[in-house]
Amino acid sequence: MRILFSILSIAYIAGIFLFADSSVVSDLSTFNPYSVLHVPLYGILTVLLIFSFLPREMRPVLWQHRCCSMGSLFHRGQLPNNLMTRFSIVGLIALGIGIADEIHQAYVPGRDASVTDVLLDMVGIIFALLFIPWLLKTKKSLIP
After folding, report:
1. 67: which of 60, 74, 80, 126 fits an S-S bond (Cβ 3.0–4.6 Å)?
2. What is the enclosing helix (H) or strand (E) of 72?
């Protein structure tokens, strides 16, 4: 499963860079006057990256309703420390991609780089980084 999400992440990143100079972006700009589509765009990227980095022992928490080893994964509703480190790394990778995309756009005719876009990318990244741990904790609390 990690390989699938890794391939999807790479394809998604390639799509972000390839569509930067596409006419699709100029068509969407009429529906996106304040660049708010950056929030879901980078939120989805972050979720894909998280699933690419998710350790094997955490997958049952997301995909199954019952797991016999849940007690060893969680202690008092907290996520393991190494998982939080992985999420931090994913957030930095996603932010780096957002910054690289803005630098790339500076060289695309008709496009410009924007600090506001990077800030909106960060909002999407933060939402995703907060949503996945919440989902993991919620799934854990639903398992008897």
Report:
1. 60
2. helix 70-73
